[in-house]
């Protein structure tokens, strides 16, 4: 699954620079994650870096974008151009 940012976000600015896929951006009120770019850091790290640095724990799995580990890896390959 891709990740999502909930309305508990305090706009602390720590998640955006941690995303290796540039999937996180500032929305109208809070940060948001583009599910087309989010791989949960598969291919880059063992754990999603945004979740690791979030001080309010507001980045859960997005139930609207279910994906397997293999699907996340394939998305990583396409985004990064690595095979």
Automatic annotation (TrEMBL):
NCBIfam families from the UniProt entry: di_4Fe-4S_YfhL (NF033683)
Organism: Microvirgula aerodenitrificans
GO annotations of cellular component type: cytoplasm
Statement: the UniProt record of this protein carries the keyword Iron-sulfur: yes
Domain 4Fe-4S ferredoxin-type, residue spans: 1-29, 31-64
Record keywords: 4Fe-4S, Electron transport, Iron, Iron-sulfur, Metal-binding, Repeat, Transport
Cross-referenced InterPro entries: 4Fe4S_Fe-S-bd, 4Fe4S_Fe_S_CS, PSI_iron-sulfur_center, YfhL-like
Molecular-function GO term, any one: 4 iron, 4 sulfur cluster binding
A Pfam family the protein falls into: Fer4_7
Keyword Metal-binding found: yes
Protein name: Ferredoxin
Domain of life: Bacteria
